[in-house]
Amino acid sequence: MTLLVVSPDYASHLLPLATLATAWRDRGERVVVATGPATAGIVDAFGFERRDLRLGRGSNPGVIAAGEQPPDEGASLRGFFRATAEGALATLRYQAEERLTDLMWDPVGRAAETARIVQDLAPDQVLVDHLAFSARLGLQSEGTAHGEVVLGHPSALPVGREVYGVPPAWPSAFDPDPSALEALERLCRTVSERFTAEWNRAAGVLDPGHRPVEDAFAEHGPLVLYNYPSELVDDERRRLLPPHRFLGSARRAEAEDAEVEAWLAQRRPFVYVSFGSFLSVRGDVLARVVGALREIGATAAVATGSTDAAELGDLPRDWLVRGYLPQVRLLGAAAAAVTHGGNNSVTEAIGSGVPLVVLPFSTDQFAGAAAIEAVGFGVVLDPNAASAQDIADALRRVLDLPVDARGRLDAVAADQAARPGPEVAFDALTA
Question: Same domain, yes or no, for 9 and 120?
Answer without folding.
Answer: yes
